[in-house]
Amino acid sequence: MGSVFEKMIQDLSGQDCKEILDECMGKNAKKIKNRPLRYRLIALGFVTHMTLEQLDKKLQENGCEQLYARNFIEATLIYAFSNKMTYQEWKELEELCEKEIFANSQLDPWFNESAIRYSDLRKYLESNSQADGDKLKTLSVTKNMREQIEKESSKEQFIRFVELNLEEFRSVREKARYYYCKYLNFYIEEKIESYLTAYERRFGMEQAAMDLAVLKCKSDLRKKSESAEDVRNELLDSRISFGNIYDAFNYFYFSYISADWMEVMLDGYSDDVDQISEEDQRKLAEAIRTYEHGWKDLSDREAVARKIAEMKQKEEEYDRQYTRNTDVAQRGYQKGRAGENSVRNYIKGNIDIDRTTLICYLLFFGQEGMRHKEHIVDRERLDHILGECGYSILRKQDGFDNFIMQYLEAENRAEFLVDNVVAAAEEQKNFYLYNMYQGGASEYERLKDMIH
Fold it and tell me: What is the CB neighbour count within 10 angstroms for residue 120?
């Protein structure tokens, strides 16, 4: 059985996001009904001549994102509703500004290499934060841009504003990306501190090293000759493992390891089971038994060895089948790396992090067991972050939000989560988390498609 997250990504990854805002302004009720609620409300705003304040209120009341000033197209919408423009006037303005954007657009300055090192993540956060003692607070770029857009009184002034602020525009909701990276940093730092504590004590290192799999450590960090500071510097230079972050996230919510992670790990060991530590054999065998029926009587070593042999046989069959087609001949496990790729794309700013996904990751990164209690996500902190990102704060009348509120107030969060996931599964219902990745697309591209 595959992960619920894996299934939902496969279900949603092929959806067509090229909706057309013009249709929401038309008279075809059937087509309008099939368009995303957010864009139907934006169209309604034009039809009923809403002010910007009225539109933002309507969007929030319906659990939709407010207009976002650092998204170029949404910046033009902010200006349009601030100045009571018609839909056609807005389209003409957007086309004028688009010429400026495409003629002078700049690449996102962050994470342009295929790999992302932990030091890269920290530099991104430092550059997008202001120091408050030893804490980093998010800059107010979005808020300042929005206030300035609302003040511009003429088209010429607004177009000039676009020209002067080209480097501040992003194709995704940057504030959500920032908070995702900020809490990912807290999560990684916790793993590093646990490892360094075990390293200095020479006790519990095996488990601490497994937990540190969120980084692809380039060398053996257990050398006694190295100081803890040297080890920390090596970790800063290590690459972030998108796959293992996703797998830990998946395990947190559903308590079992993804098939992707298991196959990638086993593939690296080839035929030599003895290369795998006993603890890793135990964890891998536990994962294998989740996916394979009738393997419960096998020892950990036997289960791992059998799985490696099966994978090798499948790989050989796959290679024979596609030996004449080099474009298709890829390793089987690479075909389903959607979970890993989603983490990569969130960090790199290739796709927007929708509200549900952001909430789920924040609760995972800021879980109860953290050493630094100030990083644990509670109701007040979560509502603050959602508001900063332009999302609606938690609403009791919404089923998912109500579940999150109960989770945050539960005496034992982990037990509450497992009980609810199991109960939903037993009733053959889609759990609330099924909505994950629904916003896994670039809102900039989606809006651009809508108006052309």
Answer: 19
Q: 296 φ, ψ to 5°?
A: -65, -25
Residues 6+ apart with CB under 8 A from 31: 23
Predicted pLDDT at 123: 93
Which segments of 132-241 does DSSP mark as H helices, in order?
141-151, 155-164, 174-201, 205-211, 228-236
Length of the chain (residues): 452
Q: Mean pLDDT for each 10-residue chunk of the chain (452 residues)?
A: 38 36 68 77 90 91 84 87 91 80 66 87 88 60 85 84 79 87 95 86 75 73 67 87 85 63 58 76 81 83 87 65 40 50 88 87 90 90 91 87 91 82 59 50 54 54
Residue 40 · residue 55 · CB < 8 Å: no
Q: How far, in Å, CA of 265 to CA of 256, rounded?
A: 15
Return the structure tokens found at 105.
Answer: 């657009």
Q: Token pair of 172, please? A: 């995704």
Q: What is the pLDDT of residue 229?
A: 81
Residue type, 38: R
Using a CB cutoff of 8 Å and minimum separation of 24, what contacts does 264-271 make? 264/333, 266/304, 266/307, 266/308, 266/311, 267/311, 267/331, 267/333, 269/308, 270/308, 270/312, 271/308, 271/309, 271/312
Reported as type and span, the H/E element at residue 240 is: strand 239-240
pTM of the model: 0.69
Cα–Cα dist 136/141, whole Å: 15
Specify the pLDDT at position 340: 80
Whole-number pLDDT of residue 40:
86
Compute the distance between CA of residue 413 and CA of residue 370 in angstroms, rounded to an integer. Answer: 13
Q: Which of 282, 247, 319, 351 is nearest to 15 (CA)?
A: 351
Residue 227: count other Cβ atoms within 10 Å of its Cβ: 10
Amino acid letter, residue 427: E
Sequence-separated (6 or more) residues with CB below 8 Å from residue 173: 65, 68, 70, 71, 352, 353, 389, 390, 443
Q: Residue 392 carries which DSSP code?
A: P
Closest CA to 183 of 217, 226, 136: 136
